[in-house]
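Predict both folds.
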Amino acid sequence: MLFDWHGTLVDTHDAMFSAMEDMLPQLEDLGLVEHLLPEDDCNNADDARLVRYIRIFRRLHPRILAERRVSRTDIFNAIFGDNRQAKSIAHHAYNQCYRKYFGQVKPFQEGVYQYVRACRDLGIKLVVATNRNREFLNTELETLEDGRWRELFDATICADDVVHYKPDPEVLVSGTRKLGLQPGADIWYVGDGYTDMVTANNAGVTPVFYNGAAWEHHRIESWFRKHDRPTLIIESFEQLMDELAAFPEGTFKRPVDEVRPPAFPPPKPPEPRQEPDWHPAAAKLIRPEVILFDWHATLVDTLDAMYHAVDDMLPEFRELGLMDRMLEPEDSKTPEDAKLVAYVREFSQLHPKVMADRKISRTDIFEVLFGDDEDAKAVAHKAFNRHYRNHYGNVSAFEPRVSQMLDGLRQLGIQVGVITNRDREFFEHELAAVEGTGWQHLFDTEVCGDDTPLRKPHPDQLILATENLKYPVGPSVWYVGDSTTDIIAAKRAGMTGVFFNGALWDLPWLQNIFPGTHRHPHKPDVVVNDFSEFWALVLACEVGPP
């Protein structure tokens, strides 16, 4: 019997996710961004969303971090597909990061040692076959429960013992041959991931899916093509004992009931992620006649250039006279805002977590730092523009088929506009460059940051857009944006505020940034996580403007 290691026998989630969060921001430097799978080539919709999220934010999807149910091997296979070279580079970079964290290891479920010991007492040969490097596995075997696991296994096979990572069958074939055996149905591979089951089928051994992460069975079934499916799905190691007990008497060296331990409880399922409660299904909105969109991080991705420019300008704050004009931390909206103000004041750079998360726009950064000081924000925007000039140019659609969605809105008779705090010099270049052909034909009006005296969160730009369209301000004008600044501008203008949650903030965070207090009253009318939800929302609105 061959076992996967992480997620099956042991839990090393703390170390693994820490290493992944360190590694993913390096994708650009590693030359791996261009090797991310096109979303249309992904195995399923979940994988496509993961690729999109990593491409834009260079970190793991919040649901993955909350549920902690997938391995780095499954992640790399999902985002790079069959590209062995890209996966090899990613695994190598991961190992460099994992070296800082490994050693944080514990049994995956209560009683795992006793159950594996029982398998050994039955006369079953046991092998660990893992994508982990040997330096990590050996250390974890030495430290786990004072080293008592070392005597359980007849052999171990690690990623650096073979040429190719799973799902290549080499690691399993090598494991069976170490025992002097050949792959066949009488050899089981017990693993917790999609990749494990594909690997087992590729190797010609019996795939046994250990559902310690408590996936819903319909989710598991949706992952696999017919030839990749597991032969067995077990919810716990107690169920593994039941499967072994079903074999005829005399199959094993001793009766199963003689060696099996007292029953231990199965693993606990993860806490469910809290989704935003401003859900499209619950929102009662006026049908839109005009829809205005934010540009950056809503319709398009220009995060790389934006963060480079912010990083370049912050060290100039003292010279620009901005250091003394920042808010006092106690005047900030949230404790997180106060920490950002204090960090910029002390180090003249963004907090590393802000850089890693890539979820906040420069407009929101300036709002956090300067509050209502319009003169200070004007100086900051001017300095940003000077540095942005050195970086701008690369622009891509935030999601696939955004342009088709915009065209579809126009075919419904809805007027479409774009509002951006970006200066026209930059916006017009990006508008002409996106998707190679440009999107100029998709908008009835465009308003940029230098078209009005005051930028968002003031409503001036939104009001100018409706004047350009000769349409009155009201709830039948929707403004769609990804930041608190966008929602404040929409509500101040008297429009319907649609928060585009492309960063996939969870409910506690949304409640944190939209507290609905006397001082910070503005909240979105609805929250959408992607443009498929937004399109469905538009089509579902039946009540027209008064």
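Second protein follows, with its predicted structure tokens after the sequence.
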Amino acid sequence: MSEAKTAVRTAERAVIRGPVARLRAVRLVRRGRGDRLSAGDVSYRIYLAVMLGIIVVAPLVRSSVLAAATVLPSIGRDSAPLLAAGMTLLCAGAALLGSKGGPARAGLPQLDLLFTAAIPRWLLLLGTVARWYGSAALGGAVLGGMCAVALALGLADTPSAQISLGTGFALLGVGACLGVLMSGAQLLGQIGIRVRTCVALSLVALAAAQLAWGAGQSGRTLWDPWSGAAQIWGHATDGSAPVPVQLWILGGSAAIVLLCALPLASRLDRDGLRAQAATWDSAKTFAVTGDPTAALARFGTPVRVGRSLTLKLGAEPARDVDTRAGSKPAPPGLWVALVKRDLLGILRTPARSLAALLGIVTAGLIWASLFVEPRDMLSSALLGAVVVLGTTLSLPAWCRGIATSAAGAGSPSLFPIAPGGLILRHTIAPLLLSVAALGAGAAVAAAVWPGDAAWSASATVPLIAVVAVMLRVAAALKGTIPLRLLAPVPTPAGDMSGLNVFIWSLDGPVIAVLAGAALGALWGRAGAGGGAVAPILLSAALLAVLGGWAYSRLRPSLSAQITEE
């Protein structure tokens, strides 16, 4: 019997060793044909990573921890159902993101050459899946460690609720397990639209059940991994040790997800993986050449919902209307027609529009938290930067009319309106929707934190909406990267032209962060009783600066149109 088992094991090793040897040989050939990095290139990349970590990452982590130290101690065991539902919804979003990519990834050459060979699929995807899950676990552990440090700093003045070393390591493990669970949800989302939809709806239903179960009794949660993570966090806030059962539930769920990773990845359709690889390759090409808008547009899906919806404009327009800009006043109903057209475009992309709504409502909730309790200037500036950046990044789904009119600003107009007036009319729909969504977030904050402070934040909601829409207008008018920025920049450390492309691509988010930090610092001081006159005047000056910046990007298009005419 033992000889038979030995023979079977030897045969299995031979079967596995053959594909492994073939795969290793193919990778050696590919590595030999590719460009190899010199020792100088490797040392320069290490130097760049170290300097970036010291100059950018370390101050950002420090400020984030200090800002979170004033907020995290208040999220105790009573908030466990809400925290569990939030983490569950994040996993649902990760499952929906599986349509754009996930742990099972491969390049086009590998998909075309190796996936058709007699090599097991799991062996081809082993490296990418392991790296993805490892990165997710490491990122979750880092985030858990940051939360543990922030909580320890926030509870430093409370001797009865101090974090022990074991609790800190438990929070590290919680972060790592949550990262693994999110990766597993994303891998399930890669299987297909039916599985993706079922997983997302199931997690949304679980989040609703968590909220309903915890509504009857404060702090009561279900026996699922996300509720276990929330309970562990609740024990950490009051200084008690976590229950071992909660750790076992969370760790066991993460272990099951890890064990199922390779079998699920090996069952993925090659055509679906190839479509995702082609999308990522084209998006990477656009991003490297300094066109982030086109890169993000590659991830959009064709409109499937609402194609039968039509726009009724009322009376038929005259056929002999002179469409030159400024030739005659615009028809009075054109404002309404453009707003209807923008709303129709929003209805035809329900998934992206709902994602934008969720992001902006969350931004409104964070903005209202500025007025709930007094904060220092650093914390207020950080929260303001998150609010404006989140609103600006969520708005593109509602600003397709702005992007279309900005793209045709230098061409002959189809309407008897100047390009600036057309762009201005297309800002009405996203501006009104942003004000409503941010106001809804402030209303949620008023329900969570009873009092007049959260309601007072609704008075400043239009300011955030106007700033975000102006930033979207400036981004739409940005145009393509100048060729001079793509020219080589030889330095002793190598070609630095990529730095120009990087700065060109990130100017909008950087301006959004700076504007949000300024608004957060100003209105956080006003919410603490510092008066509203100075914030109003400085906010008006900020709006004037952003408007001038957007108009400066529109002027070249106007000059080109005048020259063409």
